Amino acid sequence: MNINELINIRRHLHANPELGYNEFKTTELITEYLLKYDIQITHEFCETGVVGVISKGTSDRMIGLRADIDALPMQDRSNNPWVSLYPGIAHACGHDGHTAILLGVAQELALNCEFDGTVVLIFQPAEEGLAGARRMIENGLFEMFPCSSIYALHNWPELKVGELMTRTGPIMAAGDIFEIEICGSGGHAAQPHLTQDITLAMGEIVVMLNTVTSRALHPCEPAVITITQVECGSSHNMIPSTARIIGTARMFSPKAQDMLASRIHDVVMKIAESHGAKAHVNYIRCYPATINHIRETLLSIDAGKMSGMRTAEAGYPALTSEDFSFMLEKRPGAYVWLGSGPCAPLHHPEFDFNDDAIEHGVSWFLNVVKSELA
Ligand SMILES: [Zn+2]
Ligand SMILES: [Zn+2]
Asked: Ligand 1 mean position to 109 CA, how many Å?
C-alpha cells in the first residue's frame, strides 16, 4: 500500500469538499481510482457515490464495506496548505479520510490480498443529514448486492491513533428534529390583557421541554432534548404574533422515540392553549439509532487486534447519529470508532482528519475481509 498516495488523495479531497448529493468530482476521483485497478463499478444507486465490486475464489459469500464521502456546510479554518478552496464547505467530519481509507482497501484487495468471495465497496453520498444510505437502499443496493454482513468506521478524535472502540447493541443515537410554531393575536406591549402573549408561552415551552426526558422516560433510558433555535419578536413595544422553536431529540429505542414525539406535542399544545394561543408541531424522524450486531461487533474487535490496535468495548454509546443505521436495519454488521486524536473535535471549524489514522483504518478493513472471507 502506498500510504503517501493515500495521504495526497485525502488532502486533495479536503481541499475540494462537496456537499451531500453534489459529490460529483469526488465520485469522479473514486471512479477513476477503482478503474485504475480494474475494479468493477456501478453508479446504479445514486447520481453521486459509487460502488466497487471485487470477487476472488469460488465462494458466493459477499460482504459490504462502506465509506461516506460528503462534506459539511461550514467554513474550514483548519489552516493547512490543503484548507478548503470553497468558502462555506469543509470536510470537518473526516469523510475525506474515510474515502481515502476505503480506496487504500480497494487497492490492496485488488492487488495483494487473497480471499474467497465478494467485497462490495460502498462509497456513499450525503451522510450529513440527507440520508444517502437510505437512498442507496431504496434504489436497490442490497437487492443487487445481498451482503451477508456490512462494516463501517468513523474517525474518533476522542481516541488516540492506534485505538479502536465499538460496542454491541446501540452505538449511536436516533436523531430527530422538531419545529414548533406558536401563533397569537399579538398587540401593544403595554396592553398584554388584549393579546395572547406568545413570548411567555414560548418561554414556558422551552423550560418544560427540558423536563420531558427526565419525566417521560425510564431513568435508565438515555435520551437528550436540546433546543437550538428560538425566534420571536422584532421590537421592544410590540407583543409578537408568531414564535418558532427548533431543536433536536436523541434516543436509542423506537419506544422512547414515540414517547418523546408524543410528549413534545402534548406539552406544546397544552401550554399554548393555556395562553389562548395556537401551536403546531412538526416532528421529523431523521436517522434511526445505529445498532451493532453481536457477531460482527466481536469480529470487528478481533480485526482491530489483528491490526495491532488497542481495542476496547465502549462503555456508552454516543448521542450523535449516523445514517449507516439504515444499512444496519437491513443487514447484520458493525460500526466502529477509529482513533484519530489528538485533533480538533468533529464538526469543529479547525478539524482536519489525522492522516496517521489512514493505515490503521485500511488494516482494520483488510482484517475484517480476511476474517469474513477466509
Ligand atoms: Zn458528521
Ligand atoms: Zn461523519
From this structure: 28
Per the structure, the complete domain to which residue 213 belongs is given by: 174-287
Which ligand is nearest the CA of 175, by number?
1
pLDDT in tens, 50-78: 999 999 999 999 999 999 999 999 999 99
Question: Among the three residues 229, 255, 287, which one is the final residue of a domain in this structure?
Answer: 287
For residue 349, how far is its CA from the centre of ligand 1 (angstroms)?
Answer: 12
- How far is the centre of ligand 2, averaged over its atoms, from the C-alpha of 177 (Å)? 18
In the chain, the percentage of residues whose pLDDT exceeds 90 is 98
What is the CATH number for 14?
A: 3.40.630.10
Among the bound ligands, the one closest to the CA of 95:
2
What does the pLDDT look like over 200-216, one tens digit per residue?
999 999 999 999 999 99
In this structure, the answer to whether residues 344 and 206 fall within a common structural domain is no
Which helix (H) or strand (E) covers residue 64, if one does?
Answer: strand 62-68
Which ligand has its closest atom nearest to the C-alpha of 129?
A: 1
DSSP letter for each residue of 153-203: EEEEEEEETTEEEE-SEEEE-EEEEEEEEEE---EETT-GGGS--HHHHHH
Q: Determine the distance separating the centroid of ligand 2 and the alpha carbon of 367, expressed in angstroms.
A: 22
Q: What is the mean pLDDT of the chain?
A: 97
